[in-house]
Amino acid sequence: QSETSDKSSAESDSETEVEQVSVYHKLLATLKTSPESESEEEEDESESEEDGENETEVDSEESQEVGEADGGEDDKNDVPDQEEGITATDTAERMLGQEQADGTDISCDPSHGVIEEFTDVKHESEFSLETNFMEEESGDCNADKRDGNPFKQHMDKELEEKEVEEMSTLPKTSSQSKWPRLGQLTFSSTLEKHTTLKAGKDVDVKQLFLHKPLESTWPKVNKQFLPSVSKPSDPSFTPLQRELFCIMNTYRDLFYPERNALTNGEEIRHAYCLHALNHVLKANAQVLSNNAKRRDQKPGTDNDDYRDQGLTRPKVLMIVPFRECALRIVHILISLLEVSDKRKIDVSNKKRFKGEFGSDPEDKPPNLKRPEDYEAIFAGNIDDHFRIGIAILQKSMRLYAPFYSSDIIIASPLGMRTVIGAEGEKKRDFDFLSSIEILIIDQADIYLMQNWEHVLHLMKHINLLPLDSHGVDFSRVRMLNLNNWSKYYRQTLLFSALQDPQINSVFSKHCFNYVGQVAVRNIPLRGSISHVVVQLPHVFRKLEAENLTTVIDTRFQFFIDKVLPEYRDAIMSHTLIYVPSYFDYVRLRNYFKKEELNFTHICEYTKKAGVCRARRFFLKGEKQFLLFTERFHFYKRYTIKGIRNLIFYELPTYSHFYSEICNMMKATGNGVDATWTCTVLYSKYDAQKLAAVVGIDRTAQMLQSKKNVHLFVTGEN
């Protein structure tokens, strides 16, 4: 699951069983609930209203859950909600990959919960790269032969075995550079000598070697992000896009950890769509042009100059969290291919695609108040189990193409996981990942809230030699693919809202690009603590752990020995304990039960009725402690009323969650500010998270300090 395996020892057998079912499937389903079941968030008497609405459900469970000696709800309450028309068994089957492993999209009939598949087989010959030729009028292939074309420079480079060996054994060397918009950059590489890449102030579209239609369509498509008055010399890129595309176009790997769904998310999406489409159009143009040359050559002529493709056709893999993201990407790709309103491109299965990936605005409950970033992240269709193949040929696009006939694959981590399968499964397939040349992982931080293991599983199965030939013409396959060197040519573009060790690890351990890597490494000067508007003392308590593997147990022991005893007294009631890791939550819950503490709990598995009861018990003081998981907060953003004492068992993954949780205290109508407390546990391994909360200057002091650090922060201090 999303945490490391050594955490699982704290998990009971029943919880292990629960974890087999994808929790965020249910969480996502509950986000689409009716206004009646959601609007209670904005009502003072929300809990009682919700109990009324869920009367049947509450009656059936109340006898089991209310008044238990341990003070918590029955464990049966901590299971994915079964109300949304998809049973736990259905979800488990989807997780186990029961569908055919042929790369087709999986969609679930919302009314029956029936899995149905659709693959476009009708347009196979029309979109075949083997049987089509370059249209003479286009002239695109000749344009791609210009000197300095980044695509040809990157793909035509022939590595030597010595260089491949060096990349596998030698450490990377790095250098620093500061760019006007991106800030601090770290360039790292094993082979390349560090010729410092400079950020161009002005970019002429014609100098970017864009494929023919993109030169004219990009300025129009990107116009929405540009100021109404822009310099004539650079009319088509925002400052951020200009610097990002400058790196992308050199085919270096890129890690940008400052993606923000509210501010720059769509800018970034447009930039990587331009790069991906430019790559696909150039690659396909090369194949089609060579088809024509081979057709015209004399019989019996053996020419090795036509090695222009991989072992399988898919070239670009885009990993995004929700169907809405895939919908937006496809719309951008279509817009980039349409030269004018009069010259629309032919898009097959467009109506079906809109039906399965679009959303009905009426599905969203009215009067639902959530933070702006939440609204931006969870806009549109938020189903997280999908994959779709796209074939592009000159002036046409084919949606729902079989994977082995696709140029671009757009998928969620779960969508990839269920087709890749696991060892021992009969129906599994990952050959289509063998020749991926550009991997784009967008919104990587959200996968930490879903299941990070799916991302790692994908990285382990990309760019492997295929088990079957899939009808490939080996005389056309590049030597780099035949040598099993695809991973050294693959460009990885990684976008995230935050720096995180697990995301950093993917970039450092699973990216082997011979050109090198570029990572944006800006340090937060101010932390999210400055956005706390309630007056309360923040006590940061440092725990000493010998190494990274022992920090989990050390934190637990530190909490039960040093922190919890201070809160056992009845005077310290209304204590919320914020727990980022589900496994830590299970461990704490089991300990609280064993010690017979007066507590209640809310996690990502808790049913609506259980959430309402827990909130009511906590608000009224009937339960002294509330265990509260980060993933529940991420997916729901409920305001928890009645908090007087706050304990961050670990620093939050998202720094702004710190101020959000602290500011929930102002929702408490009665109570004296002076009695409020906030305690945070941290170790030296939490440097990145700590800096995001308190700022870099305080972080340096706190990591060196051996005493508790007391901060009293209010407003924008």
TrEMBL record:
Compositional bias of kind Acidic residues: 37-84
Region (Disordered): 1-111, 289-308
Basic and acidic residues: compositionally biased ranges: 1-10, 293-308
InterPro entries: P-loop_NTPase, UTP25, UTP25_C, UTP25_NTPase-like
GO CC annotation: small-subunit processome
GO terms assigned for molecular function: rRNA binding; U3 snoRNA binding
Subcellular localization, as worded in the UniProt entry: Nucleus, Nucleolus
Example of a GO biological process term: maturation of SSU-rRNA from tricistronic rRNA transcript (SSU-rRNA, 5.8S rRNA, LSU-rRNA)
Pfam families, per database record: Utp25_C, UTP25_NTPase-like
Domain UTP25 NTP hydrolase-like: 251-518
Gene3D superfamilies linked: P-loop containing nucleotide triphosphate hydrolases
Domain UTP25 C-terminal span(s) in chain numbering: 528-712
Keywords: Developmental protein, Nucleus, Phosphoprotein
Function: Component of the ribosomal small subunit processome for the biogenesis of ribosomes, functions in pre-ribosomal RNA (pre-rRNA) processing. Essential for embryonic development in part through the regulation of p53 pathway. Controls the expansion growth of digestive organs and liver. Also involved in the sympathetic neuronal development. Mediates, with CAPN3, the proteasome-independent degradation of p53/TP53.
Subunit structure, interactors included: Interacts with CAPN3; the interaction is required for CAPN3 translocation to the nucleolus.
Assigned protein family: Belongs to the UTP25 family.
Name of this chain's protein: U3 small nucleolar RNA-associated protein 25 homolog
Species classification: Eukaryota, Metazoa, Chordata, Craniata, Vertebrata
Gene name per UniProt: Diexf
